[in-house]
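hey can u check if this looks right to u? its 324 residues, i copy pasted from the old doc so theres a chance i mangled smth
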Amino acid sequence: MTLYISKSSVRGLHENHLRLNDPTCSVTSNGSHIIASVSLNSCGTTLEETENDLIFRNEITSFEHPHDIITRKHQIEIPFICKFPKKSRLSASFKAHKSAYLFTEAGFGSFTYLFEFYDNSAFSRMINPNTYPIEVELQDMIYMGIQVQSSLSTTQLFVESCRATPNDNPNDPLYYDIISNGCIEDETTVVYLNNQTDFRFGLEAFNFIGNYEQVYISCTVILCVAGDPSNRCAQGCTNGTSFGHHHRKRSLASQSQRHFISQGPLRFARSSSGSPGSNLNLNLNILVVAVAFFAAVALVCGVLIYKAKMAKIVKYETVPSADF
């Protein structure tokens, strides 16, 4: 919290003789005001709690040097508070869809990357940003397009890598490589007909094993001068060793820096009947109960049959009467 006091409001106001509750905390000033700036947990700030508010208190006071005998300065005591209500109404909005990525670099001017999902392999209709997160089923084909917009007609887009992560963080320790060093890594990935400024591809939807419900796609993209054999775009799919060799020889003006762009999330639709795992557990439970029931019935029937057979084989003999 910060307090501003006009120097003209108090006669003889000198910042060198003012302090806060904590004697080690002094005040500052500019040409017209004394300024006390303090956090809510320092310089002797105290907290008072009421039924409805949290109140933080501090005070500006004047002081004299220990060896002074007289003073011609006014004694100053200026309390100040900062009050926060315990209850308040907040509203917020969240937009999952990522808008265009704008960059400016020497030699390339301003250029923009667009990363979008499409609903068919013809890439004729972009998925509406207002419908994000996008719900998909496992093994559905998902279609993605990356486009660069530049005022230069000689530029070429290169998608060096793409990876999937369960969070919106390209450096997440849990990831799955789709494209790496310009090479396709995922066996279901299809690259469609592209031009110098567009890259379109698709793959089958998947999910991360564990308690993850969504997937983000992030890619590393580079803008190059078309036709220059020394830049990264001209090299295409490389391994790490060959790429590093060519990278040192390239002209800095022939390609842009690497930029990370991402889009998502993809969220996996849940069936109303529950997950396969829960259905499997339920079926196993039903099977166990059924087996136990039939075993109990069989046991009871066996006991009854046994008793009936024993009754049939018992022979009754006449006991001879005693002679009198």
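The two ends are 125 Å apart (CA to CA).
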